[in-house]
Design goal:
Elements (H helix, E strand, L loop, with lengths): L6 H11 L9 H10 L1 E5 L4 E3 L7 E7 L2 E6 L5 E7 L4 E2 L1 H6 L6 E4 L3 E7 H9 L2 H27 L2 H16 L5 E3 L4 H7 L4 H13 L3 E4 L2 E4 L2 H7 L2
Antiparallel strand pairs: 1-8, 2-7, 3-6, 3-8, 4-5, 4-7, 9-11, 10-11
Helix pairs in contact: 1-2, 6-8, 6-9, 7-8
Amino acid sequence: MTGSPSKPERDITAAMRRAVLFRTLAPAALARLAASATALKLARGEQVCRSGERCAGLYVVVSGRVMLSVGDPKSASKVIELIGPGGHVGLAAAALGVPEVVTAETLADSTLLLIPRAALLDTAAGSTELALQLVTALSRQVCGLITDIEACSLRSGRERVANYLLQNAAGAGARQRPITLPAKKSIIASRLSLTPEYFSRMLHELIAAGAIAVDGRQITVLDPGRLRESGH
């Protein structure tokens, strides 16, 4: 007779259920993945995985925040994405079985779940729902990268800053309420392919235009219409 899951197993299952990839997964498939997962607690500034090294599997962010970047942090690097709770790291490398092309580093004390590649692929082979979710997630990543290339190639720095703030305000459902940037301004600047100095100047211009108000990492969209005009 099978006993009830232990508290750590229940906690892992609950955390995975909150992840974007697994929200609609059937309980049996979710339980198989949860049984293979390992909880990791990382301090701020620790590396989850490094470019050029084989990824142990798929990492699911339970709490904290993880920064994905390319290049050498000691010389020149570019922030690709910021991953918060419910997001995941290493899907492409895990699916293909190839070394990572990005370096993942925690921006705050974080808890992650590591799902081994073999367990992920074995479960996907028997679950159409999971296989579809993986394909959807990878497709979104491709579309996101194309959008980033378009923005960096065809949009001005001012447009990039304005559109980034509008997206964050929309995602937070904020109107005349402060939104908190997910990282310090130099990291957001790198995410937008801007220098920190240029990013600060664009913020000051948007403040002067009456579109936003800034208090440290908190930004309030005062006039969405005016900010939207800056984004076109």
